[in-house]
Design goal:
Blueprint: H1 12-48, H2 57-77, E1 146-148, E2 155-157, H3 172-183, H4 189-198, H5 205-231, E3 235-247, E4 252-263, E5 275-281, H6 287-292, E6 298-302, E7 317-321, H7 323-337, H8 340-359, H9 364-389, H10 398-408, H11 410-413, H12 427-443, H13 449-467, H14 472-484
Parallel strand pairs: 3-6, 6-7
Antiparallel strand pairs: 1-2, 3-4, 4-5
Helix pairs in contact: 1-2, 3-5, 3-14, 5-13, 7-8, 7-10, 8-9
């Protein structure tokens, strides 16, 4: 609030009210400043603090939400300034596909309230607000009339329509909602059961679990077709992540693995659609990726897991090592010991990423030319520097281990200098694993190895839909409807997210 000292009101009461308003605004700003300072300290601790002190990203998101809510409350309580006559709204327009409900607010009468003269229309002022229509459940009653022939005494009746769950209550739309809520929005089944109960429908968690299993059965063929699409690539990203699995025999959980394989050509403007494939396995043995990629030939981006080395045995697969994991080794040393050599390694790696940022989305030929002209000298100089510095360091020191980590993987780290389609890191598959991590926090565990396999099937298709900017619920509902109706098996490609075209609106 700005105060015009040349035009102060003469009324003492008005001056007192003005001072009180200014004091209240100052206190509010001071509180907001204190909260921002606290948030900055949390961010610093998350980025630079000890591992045990770092904040969970979800906790930080909650802090940001609370801060935004407080700022919104303060802004709402303050008097709204009158905008300039020609000011344009800064917010993005609401999407065109949303239905509109028109509300006309007209003047009280046809006469001018000032002089009583007749009013003539000269235009409209149109503004929009966004409303929320809560989800609702409905019952679909299926009636099949019976007819009898008086001549032959036969009864005619339409056949019973196929249901996605034999004898079950769920329509494809309800199944799609349950699957998306669990595997996309990470809402466990027991919480969904409570939400349904608030709508007056008792659906036990075990019932919902049975629906998930039945839906996964319909989607298994599509998951296999997705796997064939991923394996047909010649550039892949691979990683794995642990998932807790209930072990009834021992009365506790065991650790299974979800192996993730991502086909993503967007960094070099490739023509094929992105896809994410998850495959469940009960362990992390090296033969798992070897079996998964038995028919694959090409380049696989991998992290430092030694088991991936077996993929190169027959010469069909080349490993591209991850610069992000290499950087992490030096970052940990720089954080713990503040060593100049570690900071120098980080600086050199950052220069490579700066070049990559400039060529991202360009053709492989353009990327390769830039890398050979600019990145190759930097990589060669870094290799010579690491070999020169390693003998000077304690053999068992953290910095020496970081350098050895890089040097032992140097062939993999330099693959991007030979092929413009190869990326510097495994970030595409790291991003694909993130939803699994969130689900793991909320789902607690998979009920069995079969539950892990179902998790892999459904999560693969939902994540692939997201990668192709396809709304998961609409796609999944329509896909289940088509499959239940008898969609031909030899036309499964039509149902893959990047080829999908809805037959009817989702809200029909």
């Amino acid at each position: 609030m700005r105060l015009d000292l040349d035009n102060l009101p003469s009324d003492v009461a008005l001056l007192q009210e003005l001072v009180r308003d200014m004091a209240g605004a100052a206190l509010t700003r001071e509180g907001e400043i204190d909260r921002l300072k606290t948030l900055i300290k949390q961010l610093q601790r998350m980025q630079f603090g000890k591992r045990s002190e770092r904040l969970d990203p979800d906790q930080l998101a909650l802090a940001l939400e609370d801060l935004g809510a407080d700022i919104g409350r303060v802004e709402e309580s303050a008097p709204a300034p009158s905008p300039p006559p020609e000011s344009k709204p800064k917010r993005k327009p609401l999407p065109d596909h949303l239905p509109r409900e028109d509300v006309v607010i007209d003047v009280d009468g046809p006469a001018c309230p000032c002089c009583g003269g007749a009013l003539h229309p000269i235009g409209d002022s149109v503004s929009e607000m966004l409303d929320w229509v809560p989800a609702k459940l409905k019952v679909i009653r299926i009636t099949r009339p019976k007819y009898a022939c008086r001549s032959c005494q036969r009864i005619a009746q339409a056949p019973v329509p196929e249901r996605p769950i034999a004898g079950g209550l769920a329509t494809p739309g309800l199944l799609a909602h349950v699957l998306v809520a669990k595997y996309c929005d990470h809402l466990p089944l027991y919480r969904q059961s409570k939400i349904f109960a608030r709508h007056g429908v008792e659906l036990e968690r075990s019932t919902l679990a049975g629906w998930v299993g039945g839906a996964a059965w319909w989607l298994e063929a599509l998951h296999r077709r997705l796997g064939e699409h991923v394996a047909a690539a010649d550039i892949l990203f691979a990683d794995d992540t642990p998932v807790p699995v209930l072990d009834p025999g021992r009365g506790r959980t065991k650790t299974g693995r979800l192996w993730a394989y991502v086909r993503d050509q967007r960094s070099w403007d490739g023509p094929d659609p992105p896809a994410a494939l998850y495959i469940y396995a009960p362990d992390r043995r090296a033969e798992r990726p070897e079996a998964h990629l038995a028919r694959f030939k090409g380049v696989v981006h991998v992290d430092g897991y030694a088991g991936f080395e077996r993929l190169t045995a027959n010469g069909d697969i080349t490993l591209a090592a991850c610069w992000a994991h290499t950087r992490r080794k030096f970052h940990d040393v720089a954080e713990a010991e503040n060593t100049p050599l570690a900071h120098e390694a980080l600086r050199r790696i950052a220069s490579l990423y700066a070049i990559e940022a400039e060529v991202r989305g360009q053709t492989p030929a353009h990327r390769l030319a830039a890398r050979r002209a600019r990145s190759k000298p930097l990589v060669g100089a870094m290799h010579a520097w690491l070999e020169r510095e390693l003998p000077k360091l304690p053999a068992r020191g953290a910095l020496a281990e970081a350098i050895r980590y890089a040097l032992t993987r140097w062939d993999g780290l330099t693959q991007f200098l030979h092929d413009g389609r190869i990326d510097l890191d495994t970030n595409p598959v790291e991003r694909a694993i993130r939803p699994i991590t969130l689900g793991r926090k909320n789902h607690l565990f998979a009920g069995s190895d079969g539950g892990g396999e179902r998790w892999a099937v459904i999560a693969s298709l939902i994540e692939t839909a997201k990668l192709n900017t396809v709304e998961p619920y609409g796609w999944l509902r329509d896909t289940l409807e088509r499959m239940v109706a008898g969609h031909p098996v030899n036309r499964l490609d039509e149902l893959l997210p990047w080829s999908w075209k809805p037959q009817k609106p989702v809200n029909a």
